[in-house]
Amino acid sequence: MVNKVRDSIYDDAGGWLKEARVAASFSRAALAKEVKLSTVAILRYENGTRNIPFHLIPTFARLLNKEISYFFTGKSDGNIESDRLTPSHLPGSRAFDVLLMYQKIDEPQISEIAEELKRRGLKPWFEKEQVAPGRWIQESLYKAISESKSVAIFIGSESLGNWQIAEYASIARISDDNGLRVIPVFLPRIEPKFPDYSPFKGLSIVRFHEDANEENALDDLCWGITGQKPPG
Question: Cα separation of 180 and 150, whole Å?
Answer without folding.
Answer: 5
